[in-house]
Amino acid sequence: MSIRVKCSVKDMQRSYIPNVYIAEMDCGDVRIKMDIHEEVRTFDPGDDVAVVISKEVPSYKEGVDYVATGYVVTFRDLENSRRKMIVSLWGFVVVMEAPSELFTEFSPMDKVYMKISKE
């Protein structure tokens, strides 16, 4: 019950919200755009990272990996059998766009954990 992808951090833009950035990641046929506070950011543009979204707490290195918990908010159907899953990590938004079959194990209001670790 998890999604695991390897990504490249493509961009990091300042949000209108102070101390918050909007990160964009390219993971092959998966794309991720997310809010992240500068005090917990563990990656920069150009970094290769592993991203896990799971219903169970993933193993992680404390103080090294980014780990947060939140809830699946909703899904949006797109063209070409693609879908967006929107997750709220205590107000910080994660938008993951991928082939629809990647999201079959997830439903709105599922509690999830997101882990990002450098490769």
Question: What can you see in these coordinates?
Answer:
The structure is a single chain. With 119 residues, the protein is mainly beta. It has one domain: Beta Barrel (OB fold (Dihydrolipoamide Acetyltransferase, E2P)). It has strands spanning 2-14, 20-27, 30-37, 48-54, 66-77, 82-89, 92-99, 111-118. Strands 1-2-3-7-6-5-8-4 form an eight-stranded antiparallel β-barrel.
Layout of helices and strands:
Blueprint: E1 2-14, E2 20-27, E3 30-37, E4 48-54, E5 66-77, E6 82-89, E7 92-99, E8 111-118
Antiparallel strand pairs: 1-2, 1-4, 2-3, 3-7, 4-8, 5-6, 5-8, 6-7
Question: What's the Cα radius of gyration?
Answer: 13 Å
Structural class: mainly beta
Determine the N-to-C terminus distance.
22 Å
Strand content of the residues, in percent?
A: over 45%
Compute the average pLDDT.
97
Q: Supply the CATH superfamily name.
A: Nucleic acid-binding proteins
Low-confidence stretches: none
Can you tell me the CATH class? Mainly Beta
Q: What is the CATH architecture term?
A: Beta Barrel
Number of strands: 8
The name CATH uses for the topology is: OB fold (Dihydrolipoamide Acetyltransferase, E2P)
Amount of helix: under 10%
| Main pleated sheet | 8 strands, antiparallel, barrel
Q: What is the spatial order of strands in the main beta sheet? A: 1-2-3-7-6-5-8-4
User: What is the helix/strand order?
Assistant: EEEEEEEE
Outline, from the CA principal axes? Answer: globular
